[in-house]
Design brief:
There is one protein chain. The chain is of the alpha+beta class and 449 residues long. The chain has two domains: 78 residues, no CATH class; 279 residues, DD-peptidase/beta-lactamase superfamily (Beta-lactamase), CATH 3.40.710. The protein is 34% helix and 15% strand. It contains 13 helices and 14 strands. Strands 6-5-14-13-12 form a five-stranded antiparallel beta sheet, with helices on both faces.
Length: 449
Amino acid sequence: MRLLMRIVKIVFGVIAIGLIGLFIWLYTSPPELLRVGSGYAAKIVCSNVFIAGRDSEEVLAVDVQAPGHPLLRLMDVSVNEAEKRVHAALLGFIAGNDAVYHEGLGCSVTPDGNTPAPLNVAHSAPVAIDETVLWPEGGKIESDPKVAALLSDAALTGPGMRAVVAVKGGRIVGETYGGGFSKDTPLLGWSMTKTVTAMIIGTLVRDGKVSLEDKGLFPQWRNDQRNDIRLADLLAMESGLAFNENYGTVADVTRMLYLEPDMANFAADQPLEADPGTRFNYSSGVGVMLSKIWMDRIGGKPAALAYPGNVLFGPLGMTSAVMETDAVGTLVGSSYMYATARDWARLGLFLAHDGVWNGNRILPEGFVAEMHEPNRTSSGRYSKMQTWLPVRSGEIPADAFFLDGHDGQNVIVVPSLDLVVVRLGLTPGWERYSPLQLVAEIAKATAAP
C-alpha cells in the first residue's frame, strides 16, 4: 500500500511539474497560433466596442467565440475605456495581444507590444440628416411591400443576417435588420474593403497621380522580377506573389493581420511564385500593399489618412465610414472598414451609376467597367478591379458584380437594373449561404410591369 501511495505521489508530481512547465512555456514563448487568436479577439472586440458601441462580452461570445476556432472559446478580454485599449489572452494571461483605438481611425493591433503613436486625421463637422427627405439626400425611405415581404423570409436573407438594404432606381425600397442591429450600426465589411481601396485608387488615376501601368512599386522589388509587377496586376489579383489566404491556421493572412505591425511591407516581402499576370491568387496582402502605394502618392500621413473621407466618403454623404490602420499607420485596405448598411448601399449605388454622384464624375470613365470585366486567369470568377463576379445562372444580368467579405458580407451591384442589394451578417462559409437568390427575387419584384 505504501509503495502504491509512493507511486501515486510520483505520478502526480510528474504531472504537476509537467503542467507547471507547460504554463511557463505558454506564458514565455506562446505558439503563434495562440497569439493570432488573441490578436483577432482583441481587434474584433475593440472595433465593435469603440466604433459600433456594442457590449464587449456579447461581441466576444457571439462574434469571436461562437463561429471561430475552438481555442477562441478560451480567450478572455479586458477593455480599458480610459485608454481605449483592449487586451485579449488565453485564460486571461497566456499569449496576450492588444488592440488600440484611434479616434476616427478605429482599432489597430499592436503585436510587438509597442503602443503606436497617436494618429491624426482631420474630421469634418457632423452632417445632420434630414429624416423628411428621401434617401440618399436624406434619411426617409419608402418601402416597397413586395420587397418587404421578401426581406421577411429568413431563408432568403440567410442565417446570421444583420442587415439587408435594397436600392432600386436610386432609392431604398426595403431594409431589414437582425436583433440588436439598426440603420445606425456600423458593420465590418471585411474584404469588401478591397473594392473601396480600388475606388480610392481610381480617384488618383483620375488625377494622374498613379497609372495602372506603374511598376517598381516597392523598394525591395527593384533588384528582381517583382519590379515588373504592375499596379493593374495587383488590382486583378494576378501579381504572381506568394500569399497563403488560409484562415484556419497561422498562414500569411493571419500572420499579417495579427502578428505584423507593418502589414504592407510584410506582404511586399513575399517571393514571386509565378510571372506577373499569369496566375490568379486571391490575397489580402495585395489590399494592404495597394493602400501603401496610394498613401505614399498623397504625401504625408495626415493627408493620406484624411484622403478617403475627402474624396469618397464625404462626397457620397457617408457619415459612418471608418477605415482602420495597422500599427504603423497604413490603412488596412484589405479587410478593415466599418460602415452602416445604408452607407455600404451608397457605395453600391455610386458604382451602379458608373462612379458618378449627383452629376459629378468621381471615378474616371471606364474604371467601374473593369469591375465587371473578368481578369485573365480566374475562369471568370474575379474581375480586373477587386470585385467578384457571380456564376452566370441567367437569374441576374451579366453586368452584375459584387463586393464580397468574410462571413457573409456582400454588396451586389447590377448596373443594368439600377439595383443594389446590401446583405451583411455573421454567416460562416459552412452555412453555404449565397445572396444571389435574394437578389434575383428582388430584381423580379421591382421589375417594371
